[in-house]
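can u do me a favor
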């Protein structure tokens, strides 16, 4: 059980770090939009607003997702779970967590190849900024790994605690 709690603690810390980065990206986006508004009032522009806001939104979404899952904030269809006694929900919770983790792991293998390819080939955006694409792609990849890790930790917790496990959204 100590190992489970240690792994869960690592997951919680990583999820908080991801959430903090997501919050900082929101603050960045606000600042960049305000800067762009001020510059356009003076007939100027950064010329990278659309590109960088897009990167920030994608990265923020993937980095914030594990924290939201951990806190039980994801939208769930409880039509089925609501009809099952709380102590009998764990098999469905385990199945859905493992299936979703497998999906993110599978998807991240392809995304990792894409990030690696972008890095090795020096692929940059087709804009004036010529942003190395492995940077925003890498942020998304880290988010995928975090959500998969969070789901695996959740699955481990469900399988070990079984009927004593209470979902954070129950």
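np, heres the sequence
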């Amino acid at each position: 059980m100590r190992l489970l709690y240690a792994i869960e603690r690592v997951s919680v810390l990583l999820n908080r770090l991801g959430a903090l980065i997501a919050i900082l990206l929101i603050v960045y986006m606000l600042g960049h939009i305000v800067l762009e508004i001020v510059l356009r009032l003076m007939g100027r522009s950064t010329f990278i607003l659309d590109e960088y806001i897009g990167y920030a939104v994608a990265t923020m979404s993937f980095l914030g997702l594990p924290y939201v899952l951990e806190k039980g904030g994801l939208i769930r269809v409880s039509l089925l779970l609501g009809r099952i006694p709380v102590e009998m929900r764990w098999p469905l919770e385990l199945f859905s967590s493992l299936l979703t983790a497998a999906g993110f792991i599978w998807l991240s293998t392809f995304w990792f190849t894409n990030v690696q390819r972008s890095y090795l080939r020096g692929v940059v955006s087709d804009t004036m900024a010529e942003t190395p694409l492995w940077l925003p792609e890498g942020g998304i990849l880290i988010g995928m790994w975090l959500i998969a890790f969070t789901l695996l930790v959740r699955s481990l917790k469900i399988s070990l605690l079984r009927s004593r496990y209470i979902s954070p959204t129950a």
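The chain has a mean pLDDT of 92. hope that helps!!
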